[in-house]
């Protein structure tokens, strides 16, 4: 190659190539799932948002008061947002492998790249949904700003971390047990129903509450709610939640590097 050609086509670093691959996977993921218009993305973002307000409508119809504070919609939102973030992130990472695995026949694309691309898309989608929820709360006269923003943001990020870690493990399990895609739905349902989204788990008494706290979603929801209700009267085991998040991510990456690649 001549000196002139070398200037026109500079050598790209491995990092540049990796960023371009992930970016291309993100664009393909969004176009495949959301369609070619912004309406597709709008519908996907509004799905979890509508989930929250359906729950609020049911509670209002039955005349159920908020277990904490004066606003039912704020109480449900502080529980549903982290719960749905974890649920969608852990599940969509697994679905990314099922829908996009043929792309791994290209030497530049690895399974982990699919997970990273899907995780970024889910993170952006989650924050977009959070902004929409904030806007709706303001419109109905509810202040969505937490008393301790750092506390609420920390809980939300913990839900993202745990969702990514569990999603990585799901990819490893799915590589040798395809039925896990259905089995995991049962796991998320059990996590969801016992997470404390509709109620306050510590009202069940210390014996039952100590068992429920093994569900990490219970503590993540309490983590977020402590940002809104400082007088909630609970203690979050931050070491347990973060250890479970980073630990599951580490296990998932080890499974991807050993088990998944051998079976691919």
Describe this structure in words.
The chain has 264 residues and is an all-alpha fold. It has one domain. The chain is built from ten helices and no strands. The chain has helices at 3-8, 14-34, 38-61, 72-100, 111-139, 149-176, 180-193, 206-212, 216-228, 238-263. Helix 4 (72-100) packs antiparallel against helix 5 (111-139), helix 4 packs antiparallel against helix 7 (180-193) and helix 6 runs parallel beside helix 10 (238-263). It starts with a helix and ends with a helix. Mean pLDDT is 81; it is low at 1-9.
Q: How many beta-strand runs?
A: 0
Mean pLDDT: 81
Binned, the helix content reads: over 70%
Strand residue percentage: under 5%
Structural class: mainly alpha
List its traits:
264 residues; globular; mainly alpha; 10 helices; single chain
Strand and helix map with partners:
Elements: H1 3-8, H2 14-34, H3 38-61, H4 72-100, H5 111-139, H6 149-176, H7 180-193, H8 206-212, H9 216-228, H10 238-263
Helix pairs in contact: 2-5, 3-4, 3-5, 4-5, 4-6, 4-7, 4-9, 6-9, 6-10, 9-10
Nutshell version of this structure?
It is built from ten helices and no strands. By secondary structure, it is mainly α.
């Amino acid at each position: 190659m001549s000196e002139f050609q070398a200037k026109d086509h500079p050598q790209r670093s491995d990092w540049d190539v990796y960023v371009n691959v992930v970016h291309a996977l993100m664009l393909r993921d969004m176009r495949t799932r959301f369609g070619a218009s912004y309406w597709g993305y709008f519908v996907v973002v509004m799905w979890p948002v509508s989930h929250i307000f359906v729950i609020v409508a049911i509670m209002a119809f039955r005349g159920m008061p908020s277990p904490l504070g004066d606003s039912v919609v704020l109480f449900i939102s502080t529980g549903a947002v982290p719960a749905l973030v974890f649920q969608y992130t852990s599940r969509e990472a697994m679905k990314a492998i099922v829908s996009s695995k043929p792309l791994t026949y290209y030497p530049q694309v690895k399974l982990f790249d699919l997970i990273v691309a899907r995780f970024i898309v889910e993170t952006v989608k989650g924050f977009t949904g959070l902004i929409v929820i904030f806007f709706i709360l303001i419109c109905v006269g509810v202040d969505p700003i937490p008393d301790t923003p750092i506390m609420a943001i920390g809980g939300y990020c913990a839900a993202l971390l745990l969702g990514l870690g569990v999603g990585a493990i799901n990819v490893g399990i799915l590589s040798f047990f395809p039925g896990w895609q259905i089995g995991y739905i049962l796991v998320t349902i059990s996590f969801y129903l016992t997470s404390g989204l509709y109620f306050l788990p510590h009202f069940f008494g210390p014996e039952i509450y100590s068992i429920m706290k093994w569900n990490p979603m219970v503590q993540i929801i309490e983590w977020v709610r402590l940002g809104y209700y400082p007088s909630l009267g609970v203690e979050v085991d931050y070491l347990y939640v973060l250890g479970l998040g980073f630990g599951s991510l580490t296990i998932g990456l080890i499974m991807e590097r050993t088990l998944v690649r051998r079976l691919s």
